[in-house]
Amino acid sequence: MTLFELERNVEFEQLIEHLEGSSNSNIRRRSAEILGSLESEAGGNRYPRDEVIDALVDASQTDDADEVRAAAIDALDQYGQDALEQFIGEISGQDLDEIAEWKKAKVLARGLQADRPELRMAAATGLGRIGEDNVVRALVNQLDDPDPRVRKRIARALGRIESPEPVPALSKRLHEDQYGVRVEIAYALADIGTDNALRELVDVADDEDETVRRIAVDALGRLGSVEAVEILAGALRDDSDSVRRTAMFSLVQLLSEAPASASHKVREKIVGELEQANASEAIEPLIEILDRSSETAQRRNAAWLLGRIANEEYRQAAQDALIDTLADEDEMTSKFAATSLSLLEGGDLEQRLLDLVEDDIRDEEMRVKALFVLGKIGGEQSRNRLSSFVDRTESDRLRKRGFSALSKLGGAGAMSGDFA
User: Fold this and answer.
1) Which three-class secondary structure state does DSSP give residue 50?
2) Is 207 buried (19+), middle (13-18) or exposed (0-12) by CB count in 10 A?
3) Which of 4, 162, 293, 413 has the most Cβ atoms closer than 10 angstroms to its Cβ?
4) Coil vs helix vs strand at 409
5) SS3 of 93, please?
6) Burial 125-146 (b: 16+ CB within 10 A, else e)
7) 84 in Cβ contact with 122 (< 8 Å)
8) Considering the entire predicted model, what is its pTM?
9) Rounded distance, CA 415 to CA 402, Å?
10) Which fold has domain 347-420?
C-alpha cells in the first residue's frame, strides 16, 4: 500500500516498518509525519501508543538523515510533553517524570546549549509546550543557533508562549534568515498578535522582496481578524502570481481562524473584498482549492465563498467544481457546495443536475445533494422528471429527497428536512 493508503487506513505497524526499515529517507520522513498526525488514533485497541513513541524516539536519535530526525521530533511533539520528555531523558540521561514544571523549564533551557542539535530542537519544542514566560530570554538568545532546524523550533516555541518580549528579535530575523525559518518567525509574530507584531507583518506584506511578501500574507491568514482581510485583499493584486495565490489561500484560512464573536463580520468583509477583486484573482484560486486541496477547512470555505462571488464569466467553471464537490467525504463541505450551487443557477445547471440524479452509477450522496439543489432552482422540467424518478428509484433515501424537492417545486411531495 502507498503511504497515503496507510494513513487513510491508520496502519501504524506498517508505517513504523517504513520508518525503521525503508532505504528512502523521504519515505522515512513522511512516515514519521503521518505517525504524528495519527496521534489521536494511538492507544487502546488501535495500536499501543507507547510503541509508536518508542519508534519515534529511536528515529529521533539514530536515523541517518537530518530531515527524518527532525520530522520524528515534531511527531513526538504531537504526542505531547511526555513523549518529548522521554526523548530528552534518553538522550540526556535525566529523568523528567517527577520534576515540577518550573524545574523542567530550567532543565530544558540548559538543553538549548547541548551539542546535539536534536536535543536542542526537542528542548525548544518542550519549552514552547510548558509556556513559561521566564524561558523566553533563553529562547531568544538561541535564535542565532547554527542549525536552521533549531531556529525554526525556537520561533515556533516563542509563538506558542505568546509573550510580546521577543517581537523585536523575531522581526530582525524575519529579514535575515533562511526561507523555512522566516516562515516560522512570521507565524510566531501572528500568534503573538500584539500591535507591534502585527505591524511588522503588515509592513513586510508590502516589501520589495517577493519571498518576504509571500511569507507575510501566509502568516496573516492565521489572525482571523477584519484588519487582516483588507491587507490580504490588496495582495490579490500583487505583481507576483505566488503572492496572489498565497493571499487567496490565507483569506480562505482566515475564515476558519476567526473567533466566533467576529466570524460573521469577517465573512461579510471577505465577501465584500472579493466581489471587488478581479475575478481571475479571486475565483480561479478558489476553484483550484476545491480541485487540489486536501485540507478540510480550506475546502469548506472555498465551497462557501464560490457561491457568493462567482460572476457570469466564471459561473460554468464554478458550477463544475461545486458539482464535483457534492460527493465530498466531509459532510459540511458537500453541504456548502450544494448551497453555493443553488446560488449559481443558470446555464444548463438544471439539466446537468437532473442527469446526475438519474444516473444510477453516480455516488448516492452526490445525487442526494443534487436533489436538494433542484428543489431550490428547478422548474417545470424538474417537476416532470422528478415525478417519474421517485416512482422508479429503489433507494428510499433518494425517494425521500426527491419528494422533498417536488414539494418545494409545487409538485406532489412530503415535507422533509434539508439533506435528509
Assistant:
1) helix
2) middle
3) 413
4) coil
5) coil
6) bbbbbbebeebbebbbebbebe
7) yes
8) 0.72
9) 10
10) Leucine-rich Repeat Variant (1.25.10)
How many whole angstroms separate alpha carbon 143 and alpha carbon 12? Answer: 35
Residue showing cell 524516539:
57
In this prediction, residues 94-115 reach a mean pLDDT of 78
- Sole residue written with cell 519515505: 27
Q: Which residues pair with 47 in a beta bridge?
A: 43
Torsions phi, psi of 65, nearest 5? -100, 130
Per-residue pLDDT of 397-411, as tens digits, reads 999 999 999 998 875
Taking the C-alpha atoms of residue 200 and residue 35, their distance in angstroms, rounded to an integer, is: 35
Give the pLDDT confidence of 49-75 residue by residue, as tens digits.
Answer: 999 999 999 999 899 999 999 999 999
Helix (H, G, I), strand (E, B) or coil at 112: coil
Which value, to the nearest 10 degrees, does the dihedral of the CA atoms of residues 242, 272, 206, 147 take? -60
Place 13 in a pLDDT band, splitting at 50, 70 and 90. very high
Hey, what's the cell of 281?
Answer: 484573482
- What cell was used for 92? 540526556
Instruction: Tell how far CA 273 is from the center of its chain.
Output: 22
Share of the chain above pLDDT 90, in %: 49
Rounded Cα gap, residues 359 and 367, in angstroms: 8
